[in-house]
Write a structure and sequence with these properties.
By secondary structure, the chain is α/β, with parallel strands linked by helices. The chain contains 16 helices and 16 strands. It binds pyridoxal-5'-phosphate.
């Protein structure tokens, strides 16, 4: 199914749907509408599993070795190598990776804790729930900061103002690298150093993004990654933490597996000193069971080999969407990396954020795209301070109106898919449809 161009009219397929009348009123005069169902669904997410991934998954299941073992070790080596760090500790999700990071900061096995209960952690107001929940669950306080309009990342100038005002006992910064956009590591490093903050990074949306010679989220103490299906690579569910700190990595290894010493690089030194305990059943830290399975790691190993081609495809999709909004009132947030083709910076485009002129235009555009079965969604959760859960749980939560950029983004911006599984026909359909949507009438 294609939207056909003929000189100065276009043919737009519309489903029989209650919204059709709403859209018909807003179409430009030279549009002819035919009513048939679009067959070109553009999903936000796709499984990303290829025949070779399924083959290795079946092999692992047949082997009988199911829980964390040699495939996990192998995948961890590949990930550490890819990211250029000394340790990657795999877990069962990116959310678990965030939880484990804060547990390790609060209750390390050897050195003094880097954070203590009641400390404040700077986080962006446009966030994912499990960026925030571990902070609250473990007795710390999220200190929300507005985001930058052109990157959707935490606004470091506003963060500095909060610190200068002496707000809370701010001891750490946990920036999200949003939607494939890597935050400049040198800016983060300078900011953290000047303010004496622990820097940890939520990179769950931005595997494959880099700045200069560094992968996003590999500056600072640690970065969490997600391999949830539809991300840059998938292990179905899955995630992990990258760090260059050996002790921190060992603590994460214990925390992911009941607090066990078994899997630590320094496990021998623990059993040497604690001879009264069975060395196979030595528990040295607090912990959870957030271990990954062998099948996840084996799929991850198969996928990571092809990450460069996945990311190139995502970049092509983003370029096509950018072309389709040129000269219109829509724009793509984070487009500078495409326009300037900066070699030293790669944006790995998890999804594509489209900015509308106002909330009315967003409403019209989103309805039109959804009518064509092009899925859309809010930017992460939108302004997280407007979510009922945070209003109910964090008694110190800020007024959502104090975050004007996050509020504006929530009202005027939406996401479309950029999955590397999209076919060239789907990419054509997506970009043509966005271009048509940009011409719809709306209340200015
Ligand atoms: C910013 C951010 N942090 C954390 C997560 C959690 O990752 P997972 O779904 O693997 O638990 C996500 C999910 O995509 C995310 O977008």
């Amino acid at each position: 199914m294609n939207i056909a161009h003929q000189d100065d009219y276009i043919e737009v397929p519309l489903k029989h749907h209650s919204d059709s009348a709403f859209l018909l009123e807003r179409l430009p005069t030279k549009v002819i509408c035919s009513c048939y169902i679009s067959a070109m669904r553009i999903p936000l997410a796709s499984s990303g599993l290829r025949p070779e991934d399924l083959a290795i998954a079946i092999e692992v299941l047949q082997s009988g070795n199911l829980t964390m073992g040699k495939h996990v070790k192998n995948f961890e080596i590949q990930m550490a190598d890819y990211l250029g760090v000394s340790n990657f500790v795999m877990m069962n999700s990116g959310s678990s990776a965030n939880l484990a990071i804060f547990e390790a900061l609060l209750r390390p096995t050897k050195s003094s804790p880097l954070l203590e209960e009641d400390d404040g952690v700077l986080v962006p107001a446009i966030a994912w729930p499990t960026t925030i929940w571990p902070i609250i669950q473990l007795g710390l306080h999220p200190v929300f900061v507005d985001v930058e309009a052109d990157s959707l990342a935490i606004d470091l100038e506003k963060a500095q103002n909060l610190i200068n005002l002496g707000r809370r006992n701010i001891k750490a910064i946990f920036p999200i690298h949003p939607l494939g956009y890597g935050v400049d590591p040198s800016r983060l490093d300078n900011f953290s150093r000047m303010n004496n903050l622990v820097q940890i990074n939520d990179v769950c949306e931005s595997l494959g993004s880099w700045y200069g010679d560094k992968h996003a989220g590999t500056s600072g103490l640690a970065g969490s990654f997600s391999f949830y299906f539809s991300h840059h690579i998938t292990t179905m569910e899955g995630g992990g933490v990258a760090t260059n700190n050996e002790e921190f990595a060992d603590d994460l290894r214990s925390i992911r597996s009941h607090g066990w010493s078994r899997d630590r690089k320094d496990s021998a030194s623990w059993s040497e000193h604690l001879t009264q305990n069975d060395s196979k059943f030595l528990f040295v830290s607090t912990g959870y069971n957030i271990r990954p399975m062998e099948i996840q790691a084996a799929i991850g190993s198969s996928q990571i080999r092809d990450i460069d081609s996945f990311i190139s495809k995502r970049r092509i999709i983003a370029s096509r969407v950018l072309e389709s909004v040129k000269g219109t009132q829509l724009s793509v947030i984070g487009d500078q990396t495409l326009i300037n083709q900066i070699d030293s910076k790669n944006h790995s485009w998890m999804l594509i954020p489209i900015q509308c002129k106002n909330a009315n235009q967003k409403n019209v555009v989103v309805k039109f795209l959804n009518e064509l079965e092009i899925e859309t969604r809010p930017v992460l959760t939108g302004n997280f301070l407007s979510q009922p859960a945070i209003e109910r749980i964090d008694k110190h939560h800020e007024n959502p109106l104090n975050f004007p950029v996050s509020k504006h983004i929530s009202e005027t911006c939406f996401l479309v898919g950029a999955h590397h599984d999209l076919s060239s026909e789907q990419i054509d359909f997506l970009s043509q449809s966005i271009n048509h949507a940009s011409k719809l009438k709306y209340d200015e």
